[in-house]
Write a structure and sequence with these properties.
This protein is α+β, with helices and mostly antiparallel strands. It has 4 domains: about 55 residues; about 45 residues, Arc Repressor Mutant, subunit A (Orthogonal Bundle); about 150 residues, Ribonuclease H-like superfamily/Ribonuclease H (Nucleotidyltransferase, domain 5, 2-Layer Sandwich); about 60 residues, no CATH class. It is about 35% helix and about 15% strand. It is elongated, with a radius of gyration of 35 Å.
Amino acid sequence: MPWNRESVMDQKINLVAEWQSGLYSKTQLASRHGLSRPTLDKWLCRYAEQGVEGLKEASRRPFSCPTQVSEPIIQLLLEQKNQHPTWGPKKLVIMLQREHPDLMVPAPSTAGEWLRKLGLVKTRRRFNRPPKGPKTMRPAEEPNQTWAADFKGSFKLKGGLRCHPLTITDHASRFLLLCKAQLDVSNAREGFERAFYEFGLPDVIRTDNGSPFASTGFSRLSTLSVWWIRLGIYPELIQLGRPDQNGRHERMHRTLKDDLLNAPEASLIQQQLAFERFREEFNHVRPHEALEMKTPAHLYIPSAREYHGAVPPFEYSPEMVVRRVRLNGHIKWKGKSLFMSEALVGETIGMQEVDEEVWDLYLCHHRLGRLERGAKRFSSL
């Protein structure tokens, strides 16, 4: 009997009537009506328990919804979003768990759906991945192996002055070591000294190729990077056009911009106070997805290499030839004056012969370049 010739309810009533007549077995009825045995048993059982009402189609709505969120929890979620408007659902849910450990907080996907319905989620642009380069950066698995530093793009304060924020982060823990409001980029050393006094010395400082971190001269040296070398810090430069090699620091800059720089303060002092509030939240409050939702302060420890404010003395090995860089950036070599770099003025350079009349140049343990046989200038690494 085709099902589509009468209503579904009529078909079910006829099915029960035929079964009660005793003329058909269940196998015959299932074949006669084009049903499976489990389906036939279901309808006969429902009729036996509930009568004709049991033959009606039941609602498909689930008895409970695991993703349903109560109004009080939604209100708490909105309060967290108002306090941290740039945070996503993952961080907001973590904060709810911290502040209300007894509540059944929603999953980040559920929280994100509620925020989307309320128009509180901004879709991000997708960028093409940068090309991969051949340069391998130094390992940075532990705190203070590598610090990353940069100047966030300048912006105008409400008072009219321009601010150039100097930022320093620990690569492994993402801990924001310094966020200093400056009028220009010329006094970067002061900011680094402040970080060194408070947190000690790192093994490596990773920067881009701009001033004051690098120059276009010999071995890309600047007065700042020469100072780092004298302190036993390796100045590591990313490749040109490869900001992804300092991607963790750039990601922090995006958070800094979203949280603060769209609403600058009136003066440099007020802006610095805002930076300090941002540092406190970024390091101690804000969960970090790449750190398994821990905070940077949970992972960071200061360096065991303390900074005492002075450059330590250094002695080259006896087999090396030592030269002092003159005020004009030259050194005297075999009766000739060879230019090195103005960044090295007053520094002592060690020269080690690696082949006949081929010399490698060192500043402390840092190899700068080479003087080839018969060459009139030094070649950088």
